[in-house]
Amino acid sequence: MTEDGKWMPLIPPAALSVFNDYSRVILCCGARKSGKTMSAVCNRIMRHAWEVDGAVVGIIGKTVRNAGGGIWQDLVRFCMPGWVEAGIGMSVTQIEKITSDSHMRYIRVMNMHGSNSEIQLHSLDHDKDVEKKFKSMRFSMIVISEVDQFGQRSVLDILLDQLRMVGVPYEMHQLICDCNPPEEGKDHWLYDCLVNRHEGNKQLMPESAYHHFTLDDNPFLHPLELENLKTKYGYDPVKYQRFVEGRWVKDMTAGHFDQFFSFHVHVVGDTSSPNPAEHEVIVPPEGTTTLITGSDIGDVNHATTFMLARSTPSRDVVFDIFDEVVSIARPVSLREFAGMLMERILYWEKFMKDTYRSERVMWRHWADSSVMNYKAGADRSDAMTIYQASDNKIVMMSAKKGPGSIKQRINLVKRLLHGNRLYVSANCTNTVDWLRHLKKGKAANQPVNPDQDCRHCFDSGSYAIAQEIPIEMEMRELPQTAKAEEFVMV
C-alpha cells in the first residue's frame, strides 16, 4: 500500500520509474533478467488497462512463438494474477482466447471504470507488412517486444499512427518497447531514435523516454541465476557487456553473410499462425523429378537439409531449401535419426503424388565424407547404418572436402545470396539461424566458430549445394598470381 492508502505492485525503483512514466514512447533496455519486461513493462500494461476506460493494448512480437513464450506468459501467468488478487476490483472477464480467423490471442479484464479493457497478442514476421497488417487497427497502447529484431524505424513510425483509440485522450496513448542492447550497438537505428539524448541528435523521437536496466535493478533475481548468467557469457567480453552489463557495444565479429543475406528477400513463406496447418512454406513445384538432401552426421549432433535445384531463364541454378531435420545437443541414435529422415522423405513423396500425381521421386543424398569411414564399434560405416535403418532407401554419397573447402563453401553461399539464387522456407528456422549468425572462430585457422551449433546446419546445407554445382564451388575470389622473375620485352 502507498502512503495515501492505494495498492500498487511490489516493484523495484527502476521498474517504478517506468510504472509512473506517461511519455508517449518509452524504451526499456538493459541486461537480461534485469526485470525490464516482467516488473516494468508488464505492470505498466496492467496499469494502463486498469486506468483507461475501454483500453485496447496490442503486444507485438517478431513471431507469435517468441512473444507468446516471453512477455505474454509473464503478463498472463505472473503479473495479471497479482492485480486480480489484490482486491482493487480488477477481474478477468474473458479468459485467454484465440480468434478463428487471424489466430490473435486476447484477454479482457474489468477496469476501474467498470468496463472492459482488452489485451491482444500479434506477430509481425516481416517489417514490410506492418502497414498492411495494422493500418486498420486502433490501440490505446502498443507494446513491441524485442524491438531490436525489427530492422527499420518505419515499423515504429507506422505503429505510432495506430495510437488513435476513440474516446481515449491523446496523453493516455502510449507505445512501449523493450530489448537487450543489439549486436550492432550504437549503429542500430534504435540508439539515435530513443537512446541518444545528446543535443544535436535530429533523429531522436519526440515525447520519448529511455529507461536503462542493470542486474542490480532486479532484487528478486536468485543469486544462482545471477552467477549462471555471468558464467554463461564470461567467455565473450562483448556479449558480457551487452547481456550482463546492458551496455550498447558493437559486436565486431560480423557474421559471414551479414552483407548478403536479407530476411525479407531470402526467407519465403509465413509461419506466424499458431496453427501449423495454416503455415505457408516452400514446396517442390510441379514437374520436379529430383529432390536433394545434405547431411552432417556427428557423434551427437545430426543435421539434414532438404532442397531442390531449379533453373532460371538465364540458366542459373537456384536452390530452394524447403525442409530440415535437426538434432542438436540431445542424445539421438543414428538409427533413430535415420527414421526421422525417412519420415520426411515419405511425407514429401506422398505430397508429390497427391498434389501432382508424380509416381516416383528421385533423391540425391549428400553427406560429409566421414560417413563412409568404417567404425569398429558398429562394425559398419554411418552410411551403412543409415542405409539399413531406412530399409535400403537412403544411399549417402560422399561430399568432397579438401584444404580450404569450408571457405569455398562460405564464398559459394555468398555468391548465391548476392545473386538471389538461394531461398529458404520460413519453417526452416535452423537454416535461417546460420545464415544470420555463422561467424569466424577466434583462431586464424577457424573459418567457422566451433562453438556455434548452427555450423552443423551450415555444413549439411552447403555440402549438398557445393556438390550440385561443383564448377561454381571452385571459382576463385581473386585471380591466381605467381612471381615473375623476368619480363621479356617484345
Architecture overview:
The protein has 490 residues and is of the alpha/beta class. Helices cover 32% and strands 20% of the residues. Helix 1 packs parallel to helix 2 (36-51), helix 11 packs across helix 12 and helix 14 crosses helix 15. The chain is elongated and about 80 Å long. It is built from 16 helices and 17 strands. The chain has two domains: 13-244, P-loop containing nucleotide triphosphate hydrolases (Rossmann fold), CATH 3.40.50; 263-473, Nucleotidyltransferase, domain 5 (2-Layer Sandwich), CATH 3.30.420. It has helices at residues 13-19, 36-51, 64-69, 71-85, 130-134, 154-160, 189-195, 223-232, 237-244, 263-266, 334-356, 382-389, 405-418, 429-437, 454-468, 470-473, and strands spanning 25-30, 56-61, 92-98, 105-110, 116-123, 141-144, 174-179, 208-213, 267-268, 290-297, 302-311, 317-327, 362-368, 374-375, 380-381, 396-399, 422-425. It has an eight-stranded mixed β-sheet. It has a seven-stranded mixed β-sheet with strand order 9-17-12-11-10-13-16. The termini are far apart.
